[in-house]
Amino acid sequence: MSDMPKSFPHPLYEKYVLKPFYDDAKTYYYEPMLAANKAHTVMLYESGIITQENASALLSALKQVEADGLDKLSYQSGVEDLFFAIERRLIELVGPAYGGNLQLARSRNDLGYALTRLALRPLILESQQYLLAFRRTLLAFAREHLETLMPGYTHTQPAQPSTMAHYIAGVLSFLQRDAARFQFAYDTNNQSPLGAAALTGTGFPINRQTSADLLGFDAIMASSYDSIGSSDNLTDVGNALTSLGVNMSRVVHDMLFWATQESGAVRIHDSFIQISSIMPQKRNPVVLEHLRARISRMMAQAQGIALQCHSIPFGDTQDIEDEIFPLIFGGLHTSHDVLDLYEAVVSSLHVNVEHLRERAMAGFTTVTELADTLVREANLPFRQAHSIVSGMVTYALENKIDPADLNVDILKQVAQDKIGQSVELSEAVLQQAIDPVAFVAKRVVYGGVAPSATAEVLDEIEAQLQRDEAQMSSMLDKLSQSDAQLKTKVDEIIS
């Protein structure tokens, strides 16, 4: 025990905790802390808690700290965190009588949770903006390929003819819901805990609405206990990242298959291709592998958020303060990388249209329509029609007959074997039934694969995208207005 240091901090605690978290705070908390300190000072003055002279001195000193920048706030042993470093500097500038009043009616608890929300806010907005850009690019891509036939897959096997636009409309649909999840996370975070102080509120006659308005918060957290103890604002971010990751990983999986020579569906742009060091013919679409890995990283960070928030006391605790920075801020930064990179890949993607058209017929993908046609034209129960068409496929495979070469003679022969009677169908009707273009064109039901039906869905997706873009513009305008309002009030008090 004789080797133990005599005072705070222990060198290892300083090495592994204080210094790294101080650097994180400088990255994520510096600007929010300056803004929160200014807003709190304005509120204290307008509530009659401090004098105009005190408020002016504090605000002038905060402007000086801002002008000096982070270089003047390097880590000092014994100064626990950035909050104390700034408070210490303010007291140096204006003296303890004025500088010591900044923390009236406030704790590091409600301030810290407010700073987390303020720091998360621009990063969530950035994720939403990248997602908006990606959705806009995908929408344009889908409109280009309304009539691009391709095989649709179930259980990894060719199932029915589809179109590239129909596939992308599905992707856009879940991305629309992911956008709503990010908006929910933003709304949960954009509530002010300021005024909760340590836990129970304060005896000073503060105006919590003033602080919230000056910082651009949409609402005040009603419960002071909830204000310093809740963590669902963090897990809501993790939930949005998890859903986005799960959804996007499935698209990456499909694209990696599409980019293989065996599939030949798409060609990744050369700017995203790496070559082999030994095999001259290789075109490695490694950008998709990097996307898959980054998505996995993002999901790991998101799951880490939930794990770190679970089974901790409902109250102020380091688990959901400094310790969660690498997970939650890292997860949002990773989402920016994934969405930005993926948007670039899609915007430069080449689709092998003619090859996909040929593949749309392969594997007998149109014979569902042939069974439906037997119901409509030959008045057969569907189960009998299904049995006959299944027998036709088996016959064709055994005799190496291509799907396009199915004919009425095969139909009659198999029908006789399966149900003991001949089935009459014209050759023209049969050929139309197994034509992939006709298959797609017939499915005009709302949400169907027909170009007109898909275009209707894309129109609705675009309308929602426009609403989301307008909401983004409104949110950014509100934050800009609150910044301007805070600056005006600060200048008025100083002058």
Write a brief structural summary:
The protein is 66% helix and 4% strand. The chain is mainly alpha-helical. It folds into 3 domains: 11-104, Fumarase/aspartase (N-terminal domain) (Fumarase C, Chain B, domain 1), CATH 1.10.275.10; 121-153 and 162-203 and 221-359 and 456-465, Fumarase C, Chain A, domain 2 (Up-down Bundle); 367-434, Ribonucleotide Reductase Protein R1, domain 1, CATH 1.10.40.
The SSE order reads HHHHHHEEHEHEHHEHHEHHHHHHH
CATH third-tier fold name of the largest domain = Fumarase C, Chain A, domain 2
Which word captures the global form? elongated
Q: Which radius of gyration do the C-alpha atoms yield?
A: 31 Å
Strand segment tally: 6
Residues in helices, as a percent range: 55-70%
Mean pLDDT: 94
List keywords for this structure.
495 residues, two-stranded antiparallel sheet, 3 domains, mainly alpha, Ribonucleotide Reductase Protein R1, domain 1, two-stranded parallel ribbon, Fumarase C, Chain A, domain 2, 6 strands, 19 helices, Fumarase C, Chain B, domain 1, 66% helix
Describe this structure in words.
There is one protein chain. The chain has helices at 11-28, 30-46, 52-68, 82-94, 96-99, 108-144, 164-189, 208-214, 224-229, 232-258, 286-309, 325-347, 353-361, 367-378, 382-398, 408-419, 427-433, 436-442, 451-494, and strands at residues 149-154, 157-163, 191-192, 219-220, 266-267, 350-351. The radius of gyration is 31 Å and the shape is elongated. The strands form 3 sheets. The protein has a two-stranded antiparallel sheet with strand order 1-2. A two-stranded parallel ribbon has the order 3-4. A two-stranded antiparallel sheet has the order 5-6. The protein has 3 domains: 11-104, Fumarase/aspartase (N-terminal domain) (Fumarase C, Chain B, domain 1), CATH 1.10.275; 121-153 and 162-203 and 221-359 and 456-465, Fumarase C, Chain A, domain 2 (Up-down Bundle), CATH 1.20.200.10; 367-434, Ribonucleotide Reductase Protein R1, domain 1 (Orthogonal Bundle). The two termini are 57 Å apart. It contains 19 helices and 6 strands. 38% of the residues are buried. With 495 residues, the chain is mostly helical. Helix 2 (30-46) packs across helix 19 (451-494).
